[in-house]
Design brief:
5% helix, six-stranded mixed β-sheet, SH3 type barrels, mainly beta, Elongation Factor Tu (Ef-tu), domain 3
Length: 174
Amino acid sequence: MNINKKMFNVGKVINTHGIRGEVKVLRITDFEERFAEGRQLYWTGEDQTDPVTLVVDGHRRHKNFDLLHFEGYDSINDVEKLKNGMLKVTEDQLTPLEEGEFYYHEIIGCGVHLSSGEHLGVIKEILSPGANDVWVVQRKGQKDLLIPYIEDVVKEINIDNSKVVIEPMEGLLD
């Protein structure tokens, strides 16, 4: 079953949990409903060319992880092969966002410019350490720049043109 659609990561299977087929998942989504019972996810692993369709039939939080159980995967032997794989959703499963909200995949790859027009680099990663996200900007010949995603710094986001305009706080570019 080859799904010829754009897919997005929503979690990484870290390990198995117990002997009844649960897996421990590191969440890569802000949408908890992705893991609700009855939801369809797609699993891909290193050697997996076609995604495997999984249907969630159990979900709970444990420490900082999501524990998921899938229909038809009732023992540790069934889920052992899922370890280190990625859980994904298709583009048509994405939730519409409010104005001013963005998916990570829309931000990653955008060029970052100062309000003066100077190009600083390209966003290569988004970190979520706490109160606000931090955008990692890859610069040519320099170390990466960390931009806090706050109104005082990020002045404009234009997804259509893959462009972000910032007004750096004192010391941010040092």
